[in-house]
Design a protein that fits this description.
Jelly Rolls; 17% helix; alpha+beta
């Protein structure tokens, strides 16, 4: 008998192919989007300090919470149904010229509705500044006082994108050839902030575990 040679079977490496692994990684990351949060002030007591309020992963510097009824009583504006963009309450920078939002988790984007209040016959532009963990400004959005809303005053939505540890809201005044933060209060009203936080560390850990598992799988 003539012996029949056995076919040798190629030994395949126990590693997943690069392209399937990359595709799986993208799918896992896509399944872990940034978390969104909407911050309004309707559950905070009227005339209180917003710094005492509790928001998820967010703390505020001092700012006065005002209902539209209180705006009319204290400031003399007919604000009913026109100032607040959610409910009937927002915050006024009467307790400090700058309102700062500080985050426990980095924020990828932040937006807020602002309303500029006339002072001495003029309306100041409003700036939203995005700051990194050392307090450096890395993004800025500035309003145009000529944009008028249904309140009859300047209204606009400001948005910054990046990776922020905090954001700062301030009115701007001319100082020489540039604009600087105003040191005067009662210049703007703000409401309905929207923040997009990075995924939680636990979510990222699950993604890493999933990728490690895919890496150990071998094709048949």
């Amino acid at each position: 008998m003539i012996p029949i040679a056995r076919r040798s079977r190629a030994v395949r490496p126990r590693l997943a192919a690069p392209l399937p692994l990359l595709a799986a990684a993208l799918c896992l990351l896509a399944a872990s989007p940034a978390r969104s949060a909407s911050l309004d002030f309707d559950d905070v007591p009227d005339l209180s300090d917003a710094a005492a309020a509790s928001f998820p992963n967010t703390s505020l510097s001092s700012a006065q919470v005002l209902s539209e009824a209180s705006v009319q009583a204290l400031l003399g504006y007919d604000a009913a149904g026109t100032w607040a963009t959610s409910g009937d309450q927002g915050i006024l920078n009467s307790l400090g010229p700058v309102i700062t939002f500080t985050f426990a988790v980095p924020v990828l984007s932040f937006s807020i509705d602002v309303l500029g209040i006339e002072k001495d016959g003029s309306t100041l532009p409003i700036a939203l500044l995005g700051l990194d963990e050392v307090g450096a400004v890395i993004a800025i959005s500035t309003s145009d006082p000529l944009v008028i809303g249904d309140s009859g005053l300047h209204e606009q939505t400001l948005t910054v994108q990046g990776s922020f540890a905090s954001v700062r809201l301030t009115a701007l005044v001319e100082c020489g050839t540039k604009l600087c933060s105003s040191d005067e209060g009662s210049t703007f009203f703000a409401d309905t902030a929207r923040a997009h936080f990075v995924p939680e560390p636990g979510t990222l850990a699950l993604v890493a575990i999933g990728l490690a598992g895919l890496g150990r799988r071998s094709p048949r």
